[in-house]
Amino acid sequence: MAEILVYVDHVDGAVRKPTLELLTLARRLGEPVAVALGNGAADTAAALAEHGAVKVLTADAPEFAEYLVVPKVEALQAAYEAVSPAAVLVPSSAENKEIAARLAVRIGSGIITDAVDLEAGDEGPVATQSAFAASFTTKSRVSKGTPVITVKPNSAPVEAAPAAGAVEALSVSFSEKAHGTKVTSRTPRESTGRPELTEAAIVVSGGRGVNGAENFAIIEALADSLGAAVGASRAAVDAGWYPHSNQVGQTGKSVSPQLYIASGISGAIQHRAGMQTSKTIVAINKDAEAPIFDLVDYGVVGDLFDVVPQLTEEVKTRKG
Amino acid sequence: MSLRIVVCVKYVPDATGDRHFADDLTVDRDDVDGLLSELDEYAVEQALQIAEEADDAEVTVLTVGPEDAKDALRKALSMGADKAVHVEDDDLHGTDVMGTSLVLAKAIEKTGYDVVIAGMASTDGTMGVLPAILAERLGVPQVTLLSEVSIEDGVVKGRRDGDSASEQLEASLPAVVSVTDQSGEARYPSFKGIMAAKKKPVESLELDDLDIDADEVGLAGAWTAVDSAAERPARTAGTIVKDEGEGGKQLAEFLASQKFI
Ligand SMILES: Cc1cc2nc3c(=O)[nH]c(=O)nc-3n(C[C@H](O)[C@H](O)[C@H](O)COP(=O)(O)OP(=O)(O)OC[C@H]3O[C@@H](n4cnc5c(N)ncnc54)[C@H](O)[C@@H]3O)c2cc1C
Ligand SMILES: Nc1ncnc2c1ncn2[C@@H]1O[C@H](COP(=O)(O)O)[C@@H](O)[C@H]1O
């Protein structure tokens, strides 16, 4: 059976959910062989085996943290050469897309980014993508070389499918190119204790209508009552009310949760680009004409300062 | 010696217009108004700021695109870029990112450069990978997705705000840079700038000038194939209620009915 190379996103050995989703998709195409790089790489093996990885190739070297992108490209290339897979799958993120793209050039392959679904096809994997702020759905294939495809979070369910997951050390020798861009310092983002925005099942977002950094406490309280992640529109981010890392939209994160709740957000095309594929959409806005209402499953025309706290109380009561 | 800055700018269909695909499943660039990608304005802005800091610098804006893509070049020239290069060829229709990056890389090498500056992503394709591919093709460091950038003594430095950390990066020139929309508002062209742009040189190049064969690019030479494109069905109209004191509770009732609580 064909082997499918799966690039692993992990934090010190803890595998992130989008990688487990990717294993579900990889199993539709062949036998997943995982590649985990950096600190804690070998610790990923148990979770990967549990979800279908037949093999886990691991490598750690100071280069992965000290230089940008290229060391990871070279390691992934080494894995590609060792395995000769039928496809290379990578969880979509800004950095991972760059890694995938450079690998594709090196191995002479086409690349598809931000797929939201994958199926086996007669001429190789068929990727579903959303285009033009999710107003179109396309199906594409890589027509040259070994398909390299990056897949967005929340594109498939996580499924248990125990496999061997045998750990093998991957040997990588870095070229001079790997030392091109030095990372001179790194400030890790502080954890809020809330779910990752792109991975969360529920996202609660606030926009210009929230009207002040301190008022985001209302949005956070609703998010916490639902166990949700917090998002923000660019207007709220530009005003300095919430960090850019929480921005939803074209130039922020693209999210596809089960439930998206927008408060005080008008629904500009660039915002929609990042949330339109959410399963259920709810909005609270005092302007009945706001374009966000074109998208909603349920909308409340009203003042968010009345509606959101009442909703939060009601959620808490119902949850006991 | 003069610092040679090449800025890659893309002409894209207006995001607020009715964007769609043409019959051959390429992005329709004829029926929809186009403009300089808003995200590439940030690249032009940073290039101009770097040029202003340097003793001696020249900013060239480069695009690969149809005849109308000249509009994007004009806009960048009126913001203050010095000259423009337009790669235009009928055989380019339908080229994907691998082909576009090949053409850009050859045009950049022909133009001569110390630093290439690109936007974070194009607003039509939104791949966000072209700058990394350019660095790979040109064999120079990539210093991408920067929210802050500076160049001094042949070294580019910048801040990259990633998913899990904010990183300070450093590389020697020549290099490929890309900047995000966090890098600082782009200037508006002044009246003087618009007038001056009319006299600035725009060089036109064809594939032949870059020693690229027609079969390396275009729809037939693409490394990916789009088999279908369907308009997403409009979302079924939802329930909209007016808050008359119970809006939050009604919403909770809806969420409960959908098993979210
Ligand atoms: C290249 C580019 C990229 C962009 N990328 C993004 C992106 O990634 N993400 C993004 O979000 N935007 C992005 N934008 C910006 C986008 O165009 C909009 O400007 C932005 O989304 C508006 O944010 P908003 O809805 O919060 O603000 P507004 O459009 O000002 O809407 C505020 C809404 O709040 C409502 N409101 C006010 N007070 C209350 C109240 N008390 N109770 C209830 N409702 C209230 C108002 O009725 C209004 O509908 C981008 C723009 C460009 C050009
Ligand atoms: N046809 C093009 N001509 C010039 N620059 C381009 C072109 N396509 C993409 N770019 C540049 O590459 C960046 C990223 O594009 P992309 O990877 O397509 O999202 C853009 O912001 C531009 O700076």
Automatic annotation (TrEMBL), chain A:
Among Gene3D superfamilies, the record links this protein to: HUPs (3.40.50.620), TPP-binding domain (3.40.50.1220)
Superkingdom of origin organism: Bacteria
Q: Where is the Electron transfer flavoprotein alpha/beta-subunit N-terminal domain?
A: 4-187
- What molecular function does GO assign, one term? electron transfer activity
Q: Supply the alphabetized keyword list.
A: Electron transport, FAD, Flavoprotein, Transport
Q: Which of this chain's residues are annotated to bind FAD?
A: 208, 233-234, 247-251, 264-271, 285
Alphabetical list of PROSITE patterns matching this protein: ETF_ALPHA
UniProt-listed GO biological process terms? fatty acid beta-oxidation using acyl-CoA dehydrogenase
Claim: Transport is one of the keywords in the record: yes
This protein's cofactor list reads: FAD
Task of the protein: The electron transfer flavoprotein serves as a specific electron acceptor for other dehydrogenases. It transfers the electrons to the main respiratory chain via ETF-ubiquinone oxidoreductase (ETF dehydrogenase).
Q: Which family does it belong to?
A: Belongs to the ETF alpha-subunit/FixB family.
Q: What is this protein called?
A: Electron transfer flavoprotein subunit alpha
Automatic annotation (TrEMBL), chain B:
Pinpoint the Electron transfer flavoprotein alpha/beta-subunit N-terminal domain residues.
Answer: 24-214
Report TM segments. Answer: none
Keyword annotations of the record: Electron transport, Transport
Keyword Lyase among record annotations: no
Its needed co-factors are: AMP; FAD
What GO molecular functions are on record for this protein?
Answer: electron transfer activity
List, alphabetically, the InterPro entries matched: ETF_a/b_N, ETF_b, ETF_beta_N, Rossmann-like_a/b/a_fold
Q: Give the function comment from the record.
A: The electron transfer flavoprotein serves as a specific electron acceptor for other dehydrogenases. It transfers the electrons to the main respiratory chain via ETF-ubiquinone oxidoreductase (ETF dehydrogenase).
Q: How does it assemble?
A: Heterodimer of an alpha and a beta subunit.
The name of this protein is Electron transfer flavoprotein subunit beta
